[in-house]
Amino acid sequence: MTDWWSPWGQVLAAILVLASIHPATTAVVRWGDGRAVRRPWRPRCLTDDHDLAWGDVVPVVSWIRLGRTCRTCGVAIPWALPVVELAVVVVVGGVVVVHPGPVLVLLAPVAWSVVVATPIDLAHMIIPNRLTLPLAGWSLAAVTGLALTVGTWVDWRRAVLVGLAVPAVMLAMSLLFELVRGEPGMGMGDVKWAPSLGMAVGWLGADVALVFVYTTVVAAGVVAIVLLATGRAASARVPYGPYLAVGAVTALLVGGDLPGLGGLALA
Ligand SMILES: [Zn+2]
Question: Helix (H, G, I), strand (E, B), or coil: what is residue 2?
């Protein structure tokens, strides 16, 4: 562990994780509705009509204390919001704990994007360009910065290769699906998100990238089997983002040594 990861580094990381909670819920609501997020650091009602007191945006606590409605305008605050708040702590906080150090400039924004993109994709079947495009640019800059400082160009090449391969495979599968079924298989939001996920897991190692691909495919397969078994496969529209999210969170938190992977692969 490097020297900069002193108690101060840990305190700073904890503050940044907590500070990213309100922007996450704001982004889920606004981007989901196709609206922009302006000044995400300012506490704002989810209707975007008025500001809030800082005491009204304490994660989870405020939601319970306010009786799940806004104090000022009375709008109902969906249960998904405190879930997103907790998910930031678990997923982004988890990544900070598992991967302390400079690599967080790459991994923390990607982890944050998982928490934001998943509920948007589940609710609206989109992953907004407002998230995926800046994140892709940031991730490429981050792997380049890491290669110049703490990493190597071998790491950079692996990260960029995985970052290109994952969306390429998804695009190919989507085109194949379209050819067979005659309807679009995949929203392009997933494909535009994939380079960032690929660069993050690719930077960590080929084994981590493999765990990402494996758990993504298994998650998709399990849901497909459930849909087939319940006879809903033909009608159900399932977004692909959540599978990528399962794969990314597993790879980022568990790493390349997935317990039971050998057993699963044999089964
Ligand atoms: Zn309000």
Answer: coil
